[in-house]
Amino acid sequence: MASAKHEKTPTAEDLFLEAEQHEEKGDFRGAFKRLLAAAQLGHHMSQLNLGNFYASGTGVRRDLEKAAHWYKKAYKNGNNDGALNLAIDRRNEGNLRSAVVWFKKAIAMNSGDACIELARIYGARRGGQKAATELLRRALRMSKDDISDDAKEKAESLLKAMAKM
Known about the structure:
With 165 residues, the protein is mainly α. Helix content is 72%, strand content 0%. The longest helix has 15 residues, at 149-163.
C-alpha cells in the first residue's frame, strides 16, 4: 500500500520569504498573493508590506483604505512601522490630525523616524518649537534598534536648524 505524499502547508514565514523572492524577480503580483496569505495568518511583516503594496499600487490597484487596514493590523501585532506608515499616508493626504495620532502611537513604540516626522509637523506650527525640540532630543537618545544612523543625522540637523531660528 503506497502512502500518499503529504506536502507541508507553508507557514506565514515561508510565504513571506517566497513573497520576497517574487518581489526580487519583479513578480509583484506573485509577491502580493503570498503577502496576502501570510498577512491573513497574522504575520506582522507581511501585513506591513501588504500595506506598502496597497499604498504604492505595487502588484495591486492602489487603495489607501486597504493600506490603512493592513498597517493597523501590523501595528496591533507590535510593528511600529505600521503606525508610522499610516501616519505618513495620512499626513500626505492632508489629514494632520490623524497623522499626529498615528505618529504618537509609533513614538510610544519607540520609532525614531516618527519622532522626527512629528517634530517636523510641530516645528512648522507657531509655538511648536519646544515640542519639536523635545521629540528630536528623544530620537537622539534612542538605541540603534529604534533609530538608524541616517535618522539620527536628520534629527541632529533639524535640531541645529531650529536653534538658529
